[in-house]
Amino acid sequence: MAIVKHIKSRNANYSSAINYLLFEHDEKTGKKIVDESGRSILRKEFYMDGLNCDPMSFDKECELTNAYFHKNKKRADIKSHHYIISYDPADVTENGLTGPIAQAISLELAKQMFPGYQALVVTHTDGHNESGNIHTHIVINSVRKTAVERQPYMDKPHEEAAGYKHRSTDKFMNAFKKTVMERCQQEGFHQIDLLVPAERKTTQKEYIAQKHGQQKLDEINQKIIEDGLKPTSAVFLTQKEYLRNAIDECAATSNSFDEFQSKLLEQFQISVIEHRGRYSYLHPDRQKRITERALGTRYGKAHLEQTFLRKDPLAILYVRSHLRLVVNLQTNVKAMQSPAYAHRVKLTNLQQMANTIIYVQEHGFDTQSDLKNTLLASKQELKEMQTQFAQHRSDLRILKDQIRYTGQYYANKEVYSQFSKAKYKGKYRKEHAKEIQKYEEARDWLRSFYQDGKMTSLKTLTLQKEKLQQQIASEEEAISSLKEKLKNLDTADQNVDAILQMQIPEPVRSKTKDLER
Predict the structure, then answer these.
(1) Coiled coil located at which positions (predicted)?
(2) Is the predicted pLDDT of residue 514 greater than 70, yes or no?
């Protein structure tokens, strides 16, 4: 199956992307591999194209675009985005996937998803550690070079304009993943539903941490063995992986959350609590809890509660799966070529049709219009909630400025008062330049903000901030819940359309027309 990963980079040296994609690198150290003469070694097989640029001058062209639009000047700015599409190794042997085919598909996807951006599209056939899985790197400059038509996945004002910076939002990633899935299904490649959260979620950051940690552990263990001793552990575990392993072990033998909670604490010193409808875990070496979102759906409340219930066969008779889209067999290349595969798809479609019917009945949709109207109303509700959420986030930023400048004003007020009374003001200002500057900065900001001259107290501002933060947290939770609802509604709507289309009989040709022929 094809999977999609995203990495953002603040590295202003665009040449490093070209070097990584063209030349051999050590998987462990990340350093470039050189020959006996110290020259870089080209990768054994790769395919490269440039989008809105010459691939070999990608770095210089990106720098010119940034300079033209006066963007990416700060160190903290995201300079580029790196997307990786990795195809299933089985597609090579079973479906005829090759480097050129993957490059052609990925280039089309890049043109569709990143119009107006300068991009490098490079396909490697070696895979990680020569695993053999074909994968394509799409590296784009974060600043759009040319204006384009507005796309459905764009939700920011002027996002289609030249000079706009790319943002890998959830909406964009979902659109990208959906496009990749549809293309893979058309090509008959192995594919999973990328829109469903992973059971075991491992980010690129955790993957790299595990790799580096294992390397260090191997080095330490080698020294221990050389000293004639036996290492205590041969496998490095990240904190998240430690949590996953512990949760798997305790959940397998627990019949309730209370029992699960006790076992985690007693056996692994892991604290787990339920907060806002989710489980969050505290690793013994951490101060901040890790939520189920960072670990995967397998470690969330919904999955674990079903796990506890399954211990008692009478407690639950049917566990419903997530809604999935019904596959159109008429456009699925692999189904056309393989009757066995088509049969499996038909069985899966029947299951998803059944799940869709259950969903429709449970939510009281009497007609298809009811479902579509609810979908449209939910989209409008989400839009309004997101607008209000954005406004409250803006209000919070202003409130934080109020608190900062009010505190800064009072903290340096006494020094400024002494400065006003000082006989030698120049000398006093020089000795207390920092405090006076902060006071004047705060005073000027507060004057422009409070037009009537009446300031709000720090105590009141702090209370307002706490109240607004609680409201924002509540809205964020509500938006997340509504997005999940929308995803199910959208899937159900598309499946209902597919089911009804399958039931429409083909028009019967009249005998008169047959005779005329």
Answers:
(1) 368-402, 458-492
(2) no
